[in-house]
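Reopening closed ticket. The problem is back. First fold of the pair:
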Amino acid sequence: MRKVIRLEAINKKFTGFALKDVNIEVSNGEYYVLLGRSGSGKSLILEIIAGLQKPSSGKVIINGRDITSLPIHKRRIGFVFQNQSLFPHMTVRENIKFALNSKERILQQSNIDNLSDFLNILHLMERFPLSLSLGESHRVALVRTLVTNPSCLLLDEPLSSLDAQSKYEIRSLLRKINQGIVYFGESNKNKPMTVIHVTHDYEEALALSTRISVIEEGLITQEGKPQEVFRHPKSSFIAKFIGIKNFYRGHISKSDDSDICKFEVINEDENYLYFSVPKPEIFTQEEYSLTIRSEDVILSLDKIESSVRNIFHGVITDIENAVNGVEITVDIGGLDISSLITYGSFKKMNLQLKQTVYAGFKASAVRFA
């Protein structure tokens, strides 16, 4: 597939922060998400692509052309800022037309109205930005960017500060824009729009992306399809950031059992703890990383009598309400393990902080990262 955007060894240095050797390739029609915490450098990457910042070294290549030194207005890149940047003294219609010259404003009027109708803002055209909801402001900013007919679309935290219903609606719109279902002008009908989207929300990334890069302190630490990144995080930072609480590193020793091995967990307290895990396809002396879904960890007040191989006695150190139940953290000999149980089970067991419980999981619940 043709590469639309390519960043080659991008570095950008500031006092106390730097982007470090960033390499990204985005194919035509991809929905590419940069996922990271605030201050990790993800928005800075968008600004370098758009031309708002110049890299200390490296190249920005769009459609095979080196545009690193090209002025912003010649790049044909659409950028939707986190705060929408609408002009408060202009109506919605005037904001949308601002980026067009006088001739384009006349020629494109029909296309502007069609796109505004698609995004359900046609009835807002004579309103001023201060009278709009956040969701409406986001739609106006999208229309204003798309009418410039960009070759790709950069989105900086486009769903931040929105309520749940507005997030759902804008997410649906972004998918349709990416797929070419929502478009500006007949020549773009059914033509996929390449999108690079910056966010700190892993659920947002999972819902929209075809590919994800995780960025940590100016460095891209993992890249891949969303299922690969979320099922096989390469570090504890990535695992914790995307909501996986049970991430462990350790060494595997061979076992007489044909299917099960012993996993020695690397523990900062230097307490020895072992898990029974499935035998990996290839044995090495290197560290392994594994994850266990919180849903797969069983809690019991009494010792678990079943086929569960991994059973530990521990103390509850944290209790947190979750969307799908209650998340319980248990200290099992200097190591935390998280279990997600139903609210009914939580009430039935009457669980409390500092209470002792048994935590267990099957060897089959282990996933190697």
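Second fold of the pair, where the issue appears:
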Amino acid sequence: MQSGLLRLGFTGVGRDFPVMAPESPLFFTVTLLFSDQFASAPMTRAHAPGRVEVIGNHTDYNGGTVVGAALDRGVEVALRLTSDGRVRLVSNAKPADGVVETSISTYAEDEWPDWCAYPLGVIDEARLRGFLPAGAGLDIAIHSDLPIGTGLSSSAALELAVAGALFEALPDTNASISRSLLIEIAHRAENRFVGMPCGLLDQTVVGRARAGHLVVLDASTNQSHPIRLPDGLGFALFRSHISHALVDSPYEVRRDECRKALMGLERFIPGIRHLARLHPADLDAYASVLETRPSLRARHVVHEQRRVGAFLSALHQGDAEAAGACMTASHESSRAFFDNSIPELDALVQFSNQQGAVLGARLSGGGWGGSVVALVTDNFDTKQADAICDAYEELFEVRPHWWRTSASAGLVHELLTA
């Protein structure tokens, strides 16, 4: 396929996202998957990266600040709008499921594999908002090199990739597509259709990331901005052998405990709207009125907000070691006060911090499994990574996967052909 075909039909009118890079190798893979399964060519394609939560653990739904970065791995979607009312889905990550078929009129009642909830949730949001034409159907092929269950937001990447490809294909929406709209739709799909009451970090980072930059989200206003990751720094990700799935975790319990802490403190500190905005001195003064668990959760959130500020200040001042120390302190707080770490993640943090080129490490994402992110210098090499993996394997008798990544670009999508 000539790269010029990738520009066919693309006007760029009203867009606030970059043009798709035609050389993306996954594009050709997902296009082949689409053609093999549906015997036609896709109309649109999209790429959405995974994300790593750098610091700000469970601060987003508490009105705090979170820092994330997009990864160099993600999800590619190829899509065609049809007129038969059918919805057909296929994923390279779930070959045993083959082509999953439902319809626009019956998907809410039909049975389908769990992974289908994410693209169907996006379709549901588009339908409820009146974007889908009457009688429309969809063929969607999904190809991912992002590990599932690692705390790296494979669900948000899938939702944003489907949203980007879908809205690129819809008639009369070219001038109105924005990242804000796509992020909102993906977030609503996760909250309402999937049933996961997550904050906005995942979709915001996936949707707004810029290469070489971190994304800083102020969850009290849902405003975000990029900051450059200093030269010479990057991330190493270590995947534990414990799968991460927030839908089946104590995530909602933690949210409820944070809510109880806020409600308990409102009686003594009028006007507070967000737990993360509480001053540590106020928490020290009134923590005794809270039950033990809400008090511990509040302690983590309040001090985590301060750590996020210290992390950003350290980067601004060029003090990478101090920034890394904030990340390690974040993990210790998650372990001790938020109770969302596990021994496997604790071990990866400990072993990572024993390496000279690692400045700090912490669990990434909701916790209870998944991955650890380490802030590393350019001197971090395979020898140091192997030392971490060797120590982990000796303790748990299974070798963790790892890879080095930089801060990458966010969602891109494009019309291929009508």
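Update: turned out to be a display glitch only; the data is intact. The longest strand covers residues 65-82. Residues 65 and 309 are 8 Å apart (CA to CA). Please close again.
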